[in-house]
Amino acid sequence: MFKSMQDFYINMLNLLSVLLTGVVLTACLFGMSPMQEWMDGRLEDSQAYRGMFGVFFFTLSFTSGHFIVAVSQKLEWLYGVLNARLWPEKPGGLSENARRIKEQQLNHRVSGVYNTYQWAKSFVYAMRPAMYADIQRYESEGGFFRSMCLLFGILTVLALVSGFFDVGIALLVLSILAAWQFLEHRHSASLCAFEYVITLDALMHDEKV
Question: Domain boundaries in the chain?
Fold first, then answer.
């Protein structure tokens, strides 16, 4: 099922992104629900009701977790906006060299269609799937923090609306920290992809010689 421990780690991290965010959000929403006291009474009275509630809670958590992960993917624009400011591209850097290799590998009329990072991932996967797992690891870790950033943002709004301003401020700080970790891991994934493209291109030229 899993080709390596790294593959297992990536899959478990993706699953954790869904379950953890879903369970936390669902628990908070149930806690704020005006029906909480009524549900607590029913849970104490009926064991069958507790089982039904458990299934319902897990289903709702899994669904809401997938929703958070899907919506958080829209935050990729945040990396696109801040990447050039946080990590300005240097002449002759990894990104520029990877772009040059992409233009050499593809027809010039087609190369502009492909994003350099997306092409780099496809190139590495086609040439060395084991190397591609390293890029996936950075992406999965970034995706986890991206989901946590959105979750903390939602909880910040809920806390402020409920009047828990100190909790809201703490959650806002956590959301910012999660966003920073997302940006760091997303940048690391890009650097890893570009480094592997340059390395594989050099190896291909050595083999031809």
Answer: 5-208
Task: Count other C-beta atoms under 10 Å from residue 35's C-beta.
Answer: 9
**Rounded to 10 degrees, what is the CA torsion of 25, 81, 73, 184?**
-80
Using CA atoms, how far residue 201 sits from 111, 121, 180, 205, in Å, is 16, 13, 32, 6
Neighbours of 107 (CB within 10 A): 9
Q: Which backbone phi and psi does 5 adopt, to 5 degrees?
A: -65, -35
pLDDT averaged per 10 residues in sequence order, the chain, 209 residues: 76 91 87 57 58 78 92 85 82 86 74 77 90 92 94 94 92 95 94 93 69
Secondary structure of residue 3 in the 3-state scheme:
coil
Q: Which of 59, 53, 70, 52 has its CA nearest to residue 14?
A: 70
| Helical H segments across the chain, by residue range | 5-32, 36-45, 47-72, 76-86, 94-105, 108-111, 116-127, 129-161, 165-208
Backbone angles phi, psi at 56, to 5 degrees: -65, -40
How many CB atoms within 10 Å of residue 28?
Answer: 16
pLDDT score for 92 = 79
